[in-house]
């Protein structure tokens, strides 16, 4: 029988709920009826505190006949913001086609969407191509606007989806992020500072944890996984933490040999193809990143895009086209949903969406209780409604990256060394009072993996080695594990990563 680590409070890391259910599709909340189109699909979706859902498009998918403005001989196609209630009807101030600036001047929304997020008060922060706009979620009025710049010359370019911490600080980077910084913008959207020198090339999304101590950047067109950054003590700068998003995959590799025959002036080339199978880890394309109940959700790209882009990988990995839920303490996959399928132009995209097919996830809105998700697809311009009565729930402790010892009441738990490790690592600890103590290894789901020490301990320093095996002597999978020192007085936990 598997022993479960039941008390979340004793772990200063991440523990998943032990009785999680599967996600089920309830309905298609919005279907624009466009079929497969990559010309400019939905590129942002958020639920405001009042339950209304805000939607923005990369191109003109949300535009109607009313959104073509003619001024003399010039024509402008508006790219409006839709705000819908729970039944899918426009609220009183929707669509939002125009904004009023602080000086009273009017402006037309005719630029391309790059993402939507909520600030600490539930207002909407809109990545509007190269500019950030903030909207009052109750009235739809423009509150602030700001142009993030990536150099001293004041240059601007296509932004990622922005993200906001609990203090109201806004973080954003650039789609073409190589050589361009990740910046933190003040809560009043009047100034910015660089917190990391170079972003990801290419990337559509930037996400921060509530405390502002960890940043996550996605990837596209190159399967770069998820880049995790960790803040310094003052929160003024970040350093590289880990790379998440590796999944195991088996694919065929084609070795091509050429048989060239020359007869006179004619040359015949015959290609002899030999197929072999290989298994290894491949990185996801995290087109979007969103939090729900402590789980970091990544929208993986269209399976057809994935396999055609990566040279040598001839098939998509098992999660392609799906939503994948990650623990942010080591990157374990803790949940997923959707039927990943590359929807073709001839397919009935509406019918497939109703069955749970997810093609090219691009945005996620969630209910306040986290039990309902509205997920937008870029290629089919559909928004599905998924529900779960008991979703995976994780807690995040912002000290989980700290390698310093945990010390209290004469007890201490040190960072395992080496970390990451293979084949073994040493864990040293101190017991403050003679008596019973236990040192155990758990996975990120809270399941007991190995008991390293148990029973009577004299006070003082102890150490034990872990060889990466479980209690049955089997090698554990690569990943991050939790080791816990407990006695009648204290319970400490830290993390260690095993790599094959």
Count of separate structural domains: 2
CATH topology of the largest domain: Neuraminidase
Give start-end ranges of low-pLDDT stretches.
1-19, 397-401
- What fraction, in percent, of the residue positions are helical? under 10%
Give the overall shape, derived from the CA principal axes.
Answer: globular
- Helical segment count: 2
C-alpha end-to-end distance: 27 Å
Percentage beta strand: over 45%
Q: Output mean pLDDT.
A: 86
Radius of gyration: 25 Å
Output the structural class: mainly beta
Main CATH class of the largest domain: Mainly Beta
How many beta-strand runs? 39
CATH architecture of the largest domain: 6 Propeller
**Strand order, biggest sheet?**
1-31-30-29
CATH-assigned homologous superfamily of the largest domain? TolB, C-terminal domain
Largest sheet at a glance? 4 strands, antiparallel
What does the model show?
The longest helix has 7 residues, at 303-309. The model is unreliable at 1-19 and 397-401 (pLDDT under 50). The protein folds into two domains: 20-245 and 282-387, TolB, C-terminal domain (Neuraminidase), CATH 2.120.10; 406-498, Sandwich (Immunoglobulin-like). It is built from two helices and 39 strands. Strand 27, helix 2 (349-354) and strand 28 (357-358) form a beta-alpha-beta unit. The strands form twelve sheets. A four-stranded antiparallel β-sheet has the order 1-31-30-29. Strands 9-10-11-12 form a four-stranded antiparallel β-sheet, with no helix packed on it. It is mainly β and 500 residues long. The radius of gyration is 25 Å and the shape is globular.
């Amino acid at each position: 029988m598997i022993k479960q680590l039941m008390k979340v409070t004793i772990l200063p890391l991440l523990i998943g709920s032990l009785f999680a259910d599967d996600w089920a599709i309830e309905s298609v909340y919005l279907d624009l009826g466009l079929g497969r189109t990559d010309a400019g699909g939905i590129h942002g979706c958020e639920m405001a505190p009042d339950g209304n859902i805000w939607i923005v498009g990369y191109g003109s998918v949300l535009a109607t006949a009313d959104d073509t403005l003619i001024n003399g001989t010039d024509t402008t196609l508006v790219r409006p913001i839709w705000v819908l209630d729970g039944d899918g009807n426009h609220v009183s101030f929707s669509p939002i086609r125009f904004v009023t600036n602080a000086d009273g001047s009017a402006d037309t929304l005719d630029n391309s969407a790059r993402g939507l997020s909520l600030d600490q008060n539930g207002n909407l922060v809109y990545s509007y191509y190269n500019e950030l706009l903030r909207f009052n979620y109750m009235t739809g009025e423009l509150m602030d606007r700001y142009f993030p710049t990536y150099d001293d010359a004041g240059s601007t370019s296509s932004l990622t989806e922005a993200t906001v911490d609990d203090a109201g600080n806004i973080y954003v980077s650039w789609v073409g992020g190589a050589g361009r910084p990740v910046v933190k913008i003040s809560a009043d959207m009047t100034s910015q500072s660089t917190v990391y020198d170079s972003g990801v090339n290419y990337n559509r999304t930037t996400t921060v944890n509530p405390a502002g101590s960890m940043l996550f950047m996605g990837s596209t067109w190159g399967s770069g996984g998820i880049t995790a950054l960790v803040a310094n003590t003052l929160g003024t700068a970040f350093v590289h933490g880990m790379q998440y998003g590796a999944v195991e995959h088996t694919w065929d590799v084609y070795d091509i040999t050429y048989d060239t025959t020359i007869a006179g002036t004619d040359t015949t080339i015959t290609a002899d193809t030999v197929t072999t199978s290989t298994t290894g880890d491949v990185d996801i394309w995290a087109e979007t990143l969103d939090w729900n109940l402590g789980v970091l959700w990544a929208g993986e790209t269209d399976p057809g895009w994935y396999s055609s882009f990566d040279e040598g990988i001839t098939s998509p990995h098992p999660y392609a086209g799906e939503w994948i839920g990650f623990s942010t303490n080591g990157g374990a996959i803790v949940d997923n949903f959707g039927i990943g399928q590359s929807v073709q132009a001839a397919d009935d995209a509406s019918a497939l969406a109703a069955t749970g097919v997810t093609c090219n996830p691009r945005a996620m809105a969630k209910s306040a209780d986290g039990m309902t998700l509205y997920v937008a697809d870029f290629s089919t311009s559909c928004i599905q409604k998924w529900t779960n009565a008991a979703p995976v729930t994780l807690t995040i402790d912002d000290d989980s990256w700290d390698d310093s010892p945990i010390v209290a009441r004469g007890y201490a738990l040190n960072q395992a060394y080496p970390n990451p490790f293979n084949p073994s690592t040493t864990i040293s600890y101190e017991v403050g009072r003679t008596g019973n103590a236990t040192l155990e290894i758990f996975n990120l789901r809270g399941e007991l993996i190995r008991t390293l020490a148990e029973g009577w301990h004299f006070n003082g320093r102890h150490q034990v080695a872990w060889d990466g095996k479980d209690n049955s002597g089997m090698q554990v999978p690569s990943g991050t594990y939790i080791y816990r020192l407990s006695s009648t007085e204290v319970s400490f936990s830290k993390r260690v990563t095993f790599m094959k």
